[in-house]
Every structure is written in C-alpha cells, then in structure tokens.
Automatic annotation (TrEMBL):
SMART domains: PHB. It is found in: Membrane. GO terms for cellular component: membrane. It comes from Algibacter lectus. CDD domains: SPFH_prohibitin. Its main location: membrane. Pfam families: Band_7. It is a single-pass membrane protein. InterPro entries: Band_7, Band_7/SPFH_dom_sf, Prohibitin. This is Regulator of protease activity HflC (Stomatin/prohibitin superfamily).
Amino acid sequence: MEKLPKIAFPFIIGIIVLIIVVSKSLVTIGPGEGGVLFEPLGGGVNTEHTYGEGFHIVAPWNDMIVQKVRQQSISENMNVLSVNGLDITVSGTIWFQPEFKNLGNLIQTKGEDYIRELLNPAINAAAKSVVGRYTPEQLYSSKRDIIELEILEEVRNELDGQFVNVKRVLVENVKLPTTIKDAIERKLKQEQESLEYEFRLVTAKKEAEKVIIEAQGKADANRILSASLTDKILQDKGIEATVKLSESPNSKTIIIGSGDSGLPIILGNQ
C-alpha cells in the first residue's frame, strides 16, 4: 500500500478546519425567532442589531444567540393570600412577546433565561398584590374579569422598560379550601333561588295589574257608553235596524202597530 504524500496531510487538515469554520459561520434562524451576536472579542452581546429569520454568516469566533420573538404564553400556579388572609391557589396564563429590536438588550440585562429571571417574579408579585385586595367569594365568582385586568396592569408596570410586552392575562382557576368553596356555593345557590322567587312575584304582580287596568278600561268605556245612550239615540238606532231587517230578501215583514218606544213591531220572518 502506497503512503500518502506528505503534502496530503496539511491539505486534509485544512479541509477539516474549513468545514468546521463554515459550519460554525452558517447560522439558521427559524420562523418566529430572532438572533443576537455574542462577540467575545468585541464587547459581548451586540445590542445594536437583531437578526431575523433565514441563513446568516457570522465570524466563527462569534456565537449567535437565538430566541423566540413571536407571541408566547406561560402558565403559573401561584399561592397567594386573600384580603382576609386565606391561602388561595390561583392558576393563570400570561401571553407575552419580547421586543424584536431590543432582543439584545433583553438578553444582556436578563440573560437567555429571562422568563424565569424576569417574567415569573413579575407575575407572582402582581398576582399577590391584586388577589390580596379581594375576598374569597369575589375571587370565586363575580370579580374574575376585573382581577385579570388588574393583574395585567400590575405586570405591565413591573415590566415597564424591560423589553417585554405583555398582551393578556387569563385567570383560569381559583382553588379555595373545600369548606370555604362549599359555603360560597351554598350562598350563591340561595341568592339565585331568591332572585327567581322575586322575579315570579314581580311577574305575577304585573299580570294582576294588567288585568285590573283592562277591567277598569272596560268599565269606564261601558259607563261612558251608557251615559251617551239617550232615548232619542236608541230610537234612531232601532229604526235603522228595522229598515235593514225589512230589506232582507230572506224576510217577510208585517208591521202591526208600534211598541212602547214608538218602534214598529215586526212579525212573520221566514
């Protein structure tokens, strides 16, 4: 077997080095991601430029730090105290998005694990502050939407100027001690039954008022009509009715004398 020429060894080593350099210099940033350069020879994290999706060529002695820059969410289970000191577990989700242009500043100040270093403490602090203003009953029932908005506002205040935008906060579950939860549910059920009973009473009262009003209207109409029916009007109406009846083709009319009111008396209808 023939030995390789001496010049072949440096050539092979050069190819290997070239492959390493090229592989380290070509960086792919995926969809919804951004990258910032860490330059060991140039002052650390480059905060001036954020790289977008696609292929990028960087110096082999630099590192590309890639992070998600699209909207993301994290869920937390937080143990907090109500206004009366009751221990409550609140489960919530927060939607956030790092600022693309300031990704370098975010990583430089908070590190690559900024979610644990920055977001989690801010969420917990906001939840404790807001939940501590309410009673267990308010947390369990009627105040959920207001609590979400207040936590969102608190988190935004905590993260102001920290290069992360918080989009929304959702309080998914409020876990109370079983005895407290059962007592609240019984109270809510009683209140609902009371409201239904009041509704039935109000409905019945309105129906009774409607019947009274209709009866009163009919009585008033009859009274007005009775007052307007004089003997002369009744006589005229009787004459009109007698004429129409006499003109009917199905009637044979015989008029004999007159009645007490002066109207004709009609006999012999067919």
